[in-house]
Amino acid sequence: MQDKGLRIISGVLRFANGANWVAAIGFAAAVALSFVFADVIAGHLSTKYPNGNIVGTIFILRIMAVLGIIAAVAVHQIFTRLLAMVSTVRTGDPFVALNADRLTRIGWALLTLQLLDLAMGLVVLALDRMGVDHATWTPAFTGWIAVIMVFALARVFRVGTAMRDDLALTV
Q1: Which of 87, 119, 134, 158 could form a disulfide with 100 if both were Cys (CB 3.0 to 4.6 A apart)?
Q2: pTM across the whole model
Q3: What is the pLDDT at residue 3?
Q4: Domain range list for the chain
């Protein structure tokens, strides 16, 4: 009998990965459409911000969408690596070197997301200086803890796998 929890986790990860790609496509469409409808967007922004830097605002909006695409690639790395790890749990052997590699990739993806978060902080600062309305931003300190934790877990997996392999050779 298959573990119900693992089925649920796999389903959630697959759904989330699909939603992630829908968002990435939306960001890509936003960038493309921002060129197609540049005059309409500029007109709207000129009405809202009559003395604003319209060209700069549109440029920053495009940057935000590109950052969203990059984030989607990083999130895809996380979801697919987690799915692969769940698969090894199903087969009954999760403590393999490949999972240590997967955790390391997840760590790099999380680090990428944290750096993108800092970039968004710079975007918010730029929008603030231009007098453009924007959402607030605060640095995500827990995300940095997650980066360190995942890299540490990757190391634990790597060492534990090597110890298990050494033990198997001595028996």
Answers
A1: 158
A2: 0.89
A3: 84
A4: 4-170
